[in-house]
Amino acid sequence: MTSPNKAITDRTFEFAVRIVKCKVLDESPGVAQTLSKQLIKSGTSIGANVEESQSAQSTADFVNKLEIALKEAKETRYWIRLLMATEIHARKSFIICSRGN
Prior knowledge:
There is one protein chain. The chain is an all-alpha fold. The protein is 72% helix and 0% strand. α1 packs antiparallel against α2 and α2 runs antiparallel to α3. It is elongated.
């Protein structure tokens, strides 16, 4: 489990690693594959934007990068909810992935 005392860059990187490693996102045919790719794109983009914010050229640039990361996090939550609600992947699989297994 991720410690709340860890830097946001570390936590978002670890989240991206869990998304990439999540076995429910293996190459599935059709709709499942499309939704899984969307989840991987948005789920890994969060950390990329947080990391990029660390080299911001101004306060406004810093805030903008973090706002983009927030939007990506909300999109990621949407894709997870959609995958679970449509039962394309078993809910249990997402619980396992959320624990970092």
